[in-house]
Amino acid sequence: MLDVFLTVDVEVWCDGWNDIDAQFPSAFQRYIYGHTPRGDYGLPHQLHQLQEHGLTAVFFVEPLFSTRFGLQPLAEIVSLIQERGHEIQLHLHTEWVDESIEPLLDNITGKKQFLRYFSLPEQTILIEAGAKLIESAGGQSVNAFRAGSFGFNRDTLRALAANRIAFDSSYNATMFGLDSGVSPEVPLVEPIECEGVYEYPMTVFHSGTRSLRHAQVTACSHREMEGLLWQALQSGRKAFVILSHSFELLNGSMNRPDDIVVARFRNLCSFLDRHRDCFQVRGFHGLTPDLAPSQPLPLTSPVWKTGLRILEQGIRRGFR
Q1: Whether residue 184 has pLDDT greater than 90
Q2: CATH for 200
Q3: What is the pLDDT of residues 19-77, one digit of tens each?
Q4: Which of 61, 170, 197, 263 is the most core-located residue (most Cβ within 10 A)?
Q5: Domain total in the chain
Q6: Domain range for residue 71?
Q7: Residue 104 contacts residue 97 (beta carbons within 8 Å)
């Protein structure tokens, strides 16, 4: 049995930083509900698909936007997710720090895109503030974290430990992983313990090129994803971490569903439902860490599947 973490990062963006107070109401509807002439393809659609297939996902919710726009929109997100029985965990995009009505930190001016750009004391404060916002919005206590854009470092793990958050899923060998200070010599692909926190890295794979690719719904065809899941199971991997976003079933203009990605998400849910005797889709609450004694090589996907995905992605771009 392989532990599978189907994770969804929930974020709100105003597509720029000018006139954000006026822009926020429509941005919230786009990024959370995904309204289109064909229906809602944001959180409501994802939650429906998960319910249809009896799966529980992990929603990493970004709360710092609420320090600018108030707690009610965050509470709306929390309610949407919790009433369907899913797990809410903490996600921080520090681009919001300088937008807060009440300063989160002293002497902060201008944007700092990644959490790793803040000191250990500052990271500790921001993580504490984010966790409290989730609870104030009606969520349970969080025990897992993911840094926005995977922009973390070893201090992030120390800050999580100080906040008694036991799990992290910020390590991505395709983005900042190797220079995070966590296992700088060997890419992490399996869970480890570091600085008193259990790191559950993004699942990554080679796809016929020298570069790694992470297991994201927009980045992998369903053939690739299913093949990687079987490979991970057969090779005795401890965990498989999949990434999605609350808005990624929409096209680039966010005005209609991306039919290919919608089908990928549906096919993934169906596959995990059919094979629940092999794959346990779960969250971090109640998790007993099963750590790898050593780090294996990343998974691999055959070139022919990569070729089909490239063709599929070309079709997607043609309809943006």
Answers
A1: no
A2: 3.20.20.370
A3: 999 999 999 999 999 999 999 999 999 999 999 999 999 999 999 999 999 999 999 99
A4: 170
A5: 1
A6: 2-318
A7: yes
